[in-house]
Amino acid sequence: MDNQNFDAIVIGSGLGGLTAGALYAQQGKRVLVVERHDKFGGAATVYQRKHLEIEVGLHELCGFGHLDLLPQVWNQLKLDDRIERLPVPSFFSVKKAGGHPQQIMPEGWNEAKAAALRLFPQHKHGILRYFQILHGVRNDVFRFVTSNKTKWWWLRNGPILPLKFRAMFKYNKVTVSQLFEDLFGDEEDIKFYLAANIGYYSDRPQELSALFYAIAQGSYHEGGGYYIKGGSQKLSDALVDIIKEHGGDALIRRTVTNILLDDNGRVSGVRHEKNLTIGKRRAPKDKLPRQAYAPVIFGNAAPVVLQSMLPLEHQQAFMAPFNGKPLSPALWVLFVGMDRDPKAFGVTEYATFVIPEHCRTFDDYANFKTAFSAEPGHTMPGYVFTDYSKLDTGMNTKSRYFAVMCGIDDMNNWQHLSEADYYAKKAAWETALLNDLDRQFPGLGRHVVFHEMGTARTMNEYLNTPMGATYGFAQNAPFIQSKPPTTRTAIAGLFLASAFGSHGGGFVGAMLSGANAAKQAKKWAGQHLPSTGATASKQVLAEAATN
Ligand SMILES: Cc1cc2nc3c(=O)[nH]c(=O)nc-3n(C[C@H](O)[C@H](O)[C@H](O)COP(=O)(O)OP(=O)(O)OC[C@H]3O[C@@H](n4cnc5c(N)ncnc54)[C@H](O)[C@@H]3O)c2cc1C
């Protein structure tokens, strides 16, 4: 029984949960991670298929600029001692239909600005202003977040916040479409060039917050984009290692079914059972439901999933802050293994954004997700083709080249289909997408020796996120108001640590949300738990028993 008592339990092992768990463990806490899948990491995993190592979710990692918050967390966890970051050779390139020459967005702030000015000299004023805005927003947000906000700070600064953090307040209310309209009017080519990768954040420029966009896009320009040597699994495994090195434990193929509450409505543990849908069947005793106890729970699963784990009478209060919040988009992926280097067929860049003919205005990005609503033959979606062989990843070394096509999807394209119809439609689309890839890079198609497609439905099943949402809630304008109100929840001791948490989606957002959860949990535990240390949960249980 003893080893079922922990200081914290993490439900799900996505990056948000693992970051919260690892930081909490570093404070001398015993942490248990419970993951329903057969790998740790959620979207940050790598799996094996026919001699091919497949990266599930990492194209590019940002967050390493001097106005970013991630380095603090990264350094605290000493992650550079455990994993190697590989700088990507260029940020992205844009390939528009209709014979337009490919345009490259280089790495580096000055380089990106210079390239934009060279390609679009007629938009000099707008381009300079654009980079000024990205910097201004990032500078304001960094100053605001890192200020020591005491009561006196609020008294002094509260009334003048909109003046002190002018760019932050102004662009909080603005969408990316509005920002671009303001800078470039209806000149669409420059918008495609600057923000071809908008799908890294959203499916709708008409709603995406310019504030969120400026923070993230500015981070790529300023701090660079990175891949992780050996794949994103290395990052997830490093975080699990930290948890275990501090006396914690981590379980795979176990689904959390219930969050246990004590008589005061505070969390006291979880009930979990073997996930029989994943991996091989194990010894019968493994199938039995088990319980583990802790006074703190980090919820890495989506809020709607956490809600279903709570006793009925607590569900409404827990879910109230999240009701009605729009979800981020789902993604589709087509993993591709090739027996020749894609560069032989004209793939010159790491990430190439292919913009189809029907996408005439930048706002047409919003239509990408509807392509799969029909059988192939009507409209092709836009996508990014990420060629991992441009980097020395240490993966797929035996004459196998790995790349991925990826774009925006919608659960409605797939969810109502029978199994047979789903697989038939998916197969038809795989063929159509590979044909399109061959049109973009003639000859490449003949060298595809492996392909496997994941849809919104796959994301929904694989990550257990509602509608396959990949980046948590949508990062819409007004951004500050659209964020979840807090990492704390209505359930005492339960903290959100995921892309649905305080800092939004992507690797960086999930990790920062996790870091925030660890911080909030420490504060809460200091105020509410009788003592800290690995026996705290026992004391809470003992308290509950005597109540
Ligand atoms: C194809 C793809 C490409 C992407 N590309 C990038 C990129 O290039 N750069 C970037 O920054 N971001 C990218 N992202 C987004 C980024 O990966 C995610 O936003 C982020 O990793 C989400 O982390 P998370 O902590 O919210 O957890 P998730 O990764 O969503 O994981 C949640 C975990 O909880 C587990 N879980 C759910 N329910 C239970 C339960 N009942 N019991 C136990 N476990 C449970 C799930 O199995 C899962 O492992 C991409 C995502 C995808 C899918």
Summary?
The chain has 547 residues and is an alpha/beta fold.
Description:
With 547 residues, the chain is an alpha/beta fold. It has three domains: 2-51 and 232-321 and 484-546, FAD/NAD(P)-binding domain (3-Layer(bba) Sandwich); 107-227, no CATH class; 326-466, Polyamine Oxidase, Chain A, domain 2. Helix content is 36%, strand content 17%. It contains 18 helices and 19 strands. It has helices at 15-26, 70-76, 109-119, 124-146, 151-157, 161-164, 166-172, 176-184, 188-195, 210-223, 232-245, 303-309, 312-319, 419-440, 456-463, 479-482, 506-528, 536-546, and strands spanning 8-11, 31-34, 46-49, 52-55, 85-87, 92-96, 103-105, 226-228, 249-251, 254-261, 267-274, 290-293, 296-299, 330-338, 351-355, 383-387, 401-409, 448-454, 494-496. The strands form five sheets. The chain has a seven-stranded mixed beta sheet with strand order 7-6-15-16-17-14-18, sandwiched between helices. Helix 1 (15-26) packs parallel to helix 11 (232-245), helix 4 crosses helix 10 (210-223) and helix 12 runs antiparallel to helix 13 (312-319). Mean pLDDT is 93; it is low at 540-547. Flavin-adenine dinucleotide is lined by residues 11-17, 34-37, 42-44, 57-61, 255-256, 300-301, 305, 331, 333, 406, 459, 463-465, 470-471, 498-499, 505-508, 510.
